[in-house]
């Protein structure tokens, strides 16, 4: 029973850390890349108004996730490395919903 409680507590703690890390990363990148007022240089319509910011968001997100995985792989004992890989794949899968939320939250200014 004690092992089960310890296992559940560790997984809950990992989930809390993961959510905190992902939230800080998402809101930090949203503040850095999407907080400026939008000005469209050309009159041509685009599917994604801030596509350069979206590409930067994807690249920086991937760089931070891969960097965090590499740092944690060096710090965590060998018996817990499979857990880091699980959270890494979850973070990679989470990029698509984060992009959908980010693009839907951006408002296109009225002309």
Keywords:
single chain, 111 residues, mainly alpha, elongated, membrane, transmembrane, transmembrane helix
Quote the distance from N terminus to C terminus: 63 Å
Please summarize the sheet with the most strands: none
Number of helices: 3
Number of strands: 0
- The ordered H/E elements are HHH
User: Given the helix and strand composition, which structural class is it?
Assistant: mainly alpha
Number of domains: 1
Show unreliable segments.
Answer: none
Strand % is under 5%
Rg from Cα: 18 Å
Shape: elongated
- Helical content stands at over 70%
Q: Give the averaged pLDDT, no decimals.
A: 85
Keywords: Membrane, Transmembrane, Transmembrane helix
Transmembrane segments: 12-34, 54-75, 87-105
Describe the structure.
The chain crosses the membrane at residues 12-34, 54-75, 87-105. The protein has helices at residues 2-34, 51-75, 81-105. The chain has one domain. The termini are far apart. It is mainly α and 111 residues long. The longest helix is centred in the first third of the chain and has 33 residues, at 2-34. The protein has 3 helices and no strands. The protein is 75% helix and 0% strand. Helix 1 (2-34) runs antiparallel to helix 2 and helix 2 runs antiparallel to helix 3. The model has no long low-confidence stretch (mean pLDDT 85).
Short synopsis of the structure:
The chain has about 110 residues and is mostly helical. Helices cover about 75% and strands about 0% of the residues. Helix 1 packs parallel to helix 3 and helix 2 runs antiparallel to helix 3.
């Amino acid at each position: 029973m004690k092992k089960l409680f310890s296992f559940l507590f560790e997984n809950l703690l990992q989930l809390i850390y993961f959510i905190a890390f992902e939230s800080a990363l998402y809101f930090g990148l949203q503040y850095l890349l999407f907080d400026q007022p939008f000005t469209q240089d050309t009159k041509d319509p685009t599917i994604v108004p801030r596509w350069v910011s979206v590409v930067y968001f994807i690249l920086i997100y991937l760089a931070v996730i891969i960097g965090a995985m590499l740092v944690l792989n060096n710090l965590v004992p060998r018996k817990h490395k499979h857990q880091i890989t699980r959270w890494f794949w979850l973070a990679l899968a989470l990029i698509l919903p984060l992009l959908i939320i980010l693009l839907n939250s951006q408002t296109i200014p009225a002309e």
